[in-house]
Amino acid sequence: MLRLAIQKSGRLSDDSLNLIRECGISFINSSLKLKTACTNFPLEILFLRDDDIPGYVADGVADIGIVGQNVLVEEGKQELTVEALGFSKCRLSLAVPKSADYNSISDLNGKNIATSYPNLLQAFLDEQGVQAHIHTISGSVEIAPSIGLAEAICDIVSSGSTLISNGLKEVERVFKSEAVLIANQELPQEKREILEKLLFRVHAVQRARK
Ligand code: ATP
Ligand code: ZN
C-alpha cells in the first residue's frame, strides 16, 4: 500500500482528487476523514495542510504527495520532486501600492517587505543584489502596506485581481509555480512498483487532456 498526502481543503484539493479519479482509482471521500483507503488500487490518501506535506513525505509518514512548488522550494525540499503536474499554476510576485513610484528592483533597497515565503524572497533579493527587511507573516499579506507594516509585499498571484482590490500593483516576478508530485527518496522496492503503476496512469491522463 502506497500512502499519498494531498491538501485537505484548498486550492490544490479538487485538482489533486480529480487526477486520482481520472486515473481510474476509486475512494470514498468524506470531508470528516483524515485518511481513506482506495478500493481498487493499493493507495491510501491522507488529507493534510499543504505546508505539512513536504515534511511528511521527507520523513516517510507519507510515501508520496502533491504540493505546490512554492511550498516545496520554500521548505528546501525540491529534491523530493518526481514531476510537475500542470495544475495550480501561479506565481510569487513582488507588489507595491498602486500610487508608489517604482522604477526598478533597486527601489526596494532598505524597504520592508511582508511575505509568507521568506526563503524564496531572500534568494531572489540576493540574486538581484537588493538588501531589504523581510517580515514573515503567515496570512493576509496583501493588507500589510495599508496597515503600515511594509512598503511592499511578496505573495502568490494568479489573475492579479486580489492585488488590484487591495490597491497594489505587481512589479516583479519572483518564482513560477505549479503542483508537483513528490516522493520519499528511500521507498522500498514494493512501493516503488506501485508508484510506477500510478505514474503510468498519470501520464495516460495527461496525454488524454492535451
Ligand atoms: P492550507 O490550509 O492547506 O495550509 P493554504 O491556505 O496555505 O492551505 P491555498 O491557498 O489553498 O493554501 O493554496 C495552496 C497552493 O495552491 C499554493 O501553495 C499554491 O501552490 C497554489 N495556489 C495558491 N493560490 C493560487 C491561485 N490563485 N491560483 C492557482 N494556484 C494557487
Ligand atoms: Zn498552507
TrEMBL record:
Parts forming coiled coils: none
Entry's EC annotation: 2.4.2.17
Pathway(s) per entry: Amino-acid biosynthesis; L-histidine biosynthesis; L-histidine from 5-phospho-alpha-D-ribose 1-diphosphate: step 1/9
Catalysed reactions listed for this entry: 1-(5-phospho-beta-D-ribosyl)-ATP + diphosphate = 5-phospho-alpha-D-ribose 1-diphosphate + ATP
Principal cellular location given in the protein's record: cytoplasm
Keyword DNA damage: no
Keyword tags: Amino-acid biosynthesis, ATP-binding, Cytoplasm, Glycosyltransferase, Histidine biosynthesis, Magnesium, Metal-binding, Nucleotide-binding, Transferase
Documented activity regulation: Feedback inhibited by histidine.
Any one GO BP annotation for this protein: L-histidine biosynthetic process
Subcellular location: Cytoplasm
UniProt cofactor(s): Mg(2+)
ATP phosphoribosyltransferase catalytic domain mapped to chain residues: 49-202
A Gene Ontology term for the protein's cellular component: cytoplasm
Gene Ontology MF term list: ATP binding; ATP phosphoribosyltransferase activity; magnesium ion binding
Family (UniProt): Belongs to the ATP phosphoribosyltransferase family. Long subfamily.
Function: Catalyzes the condensation of ATP and 5-phosphoribose 1-diphosphate to form N'-(5'-phosphoribosyl)-ATP (PR-ATP). Has a crucial role in the pathway because the rate of histidine biosynthesis seems to be controlled primarily by regulation of HisG enzymatic activity.
Name of the protein in its database record: ATP phosphoribosyltransferase
Organism of provenance: Pontibacter korlensis
Residue span relative to the full protein: 1 to 210 of 283
